[in-house]
Amino acid sequence: MATINMILQGKGGVGKSLVASLLTQHLLESGKEVHCVDTDPVNATFAGYKSFNVTALDIMNGDDIDPRRFDTLVELMMDLPDDSHMVIDNGAATFVPLASYLADNNVFELLHESGHQINLHTVITGGQALPDTLSGLNSLLKAFDTPIYIWLNGYFGQISLNGKNFEEFKVFTDNTTRFPALIRLPQKKKETFGRDLENLLAVKMSFHDAQESSLPIMTRQRLRMTWNEIRSELEKSNL
Q1: How far apart are CA 195 and CA 176, in angstroms?
Q2: Which of 67-71, 104-108, 155-159, 217-221 has the lowest average pLDDT?
Q3: Domain containing residue 162
Q4: 36 to each of 27, 129, 157, 181, how far by Cα in Å?
Q5: How many CB atoms lie within 10 A of CB 213?
Q6: Does residue 210 belong to any structural domain of this protein?
Q7: How many CB atoms lie within 10 A of CB 45?
Q8: Residue 16: which residues within 8 A CB-CB, separation 6 or more?
Q9: pLDDT tens digits, 12-54
Q10: Does residue 49 belong to any structural domain of this protein?
Q11: Domain total for the chain?
């Protein structure tokens, strides 16, 4: 049995590729065999990580998304070796086409029949993007009966509504059995930790690569501290 981790969120720029990279690094450091796929035809950020050997899936036919090209993704998932993992980063532009394809073709049922485990991952942010990311979560809950891991990214603002934290939101209290874990990305000082992380993401470098690099000592120290916090969160999630 293989485990397929698919990152889906209809709102762009909220950290989907970040989640894909963090999950990949966690699985690799846990000794897992990991296969990576990027389906984003606009910003193939995940495919930029050379150390992950990401397959960039070509789903375009001219200027349009060709849903039939998702057949290739299904073939890749079906051919996964036992005990391996796949991490799939999906862009905002392909959220609706891919979700429709998966539902219309009963893809998850096919994968389950083949013995594969499906985990969905979505990002919830604070600030102005909160309503849009909650809308994306609701779409996933309605379309699929699969576990959904929630990644809370407070970089853009506090994740709260009317004084309530995410755990008090109706979408959470009504669907607690659907969410195996809440994964909180650490919020650090933007002038130091935040800038180091932004620079790391800009050059598509993993935390491991950063420690092996010639980056300044304190940059590597802050990145090590950040990664330790993230790994602690991921270990609690039992992914």
Answers
A1: 34
A2: 155-159
A3: 3-187
A4: 11, 27, 30, 22
A5: 14
A6: no
A7: 20
A8: 7, 9, 89, 90, 91, 92, 123
A9: 999 999 999 999 999 999 999 999 999 998 888 999 999 999 9
A10: yes
A11: 1
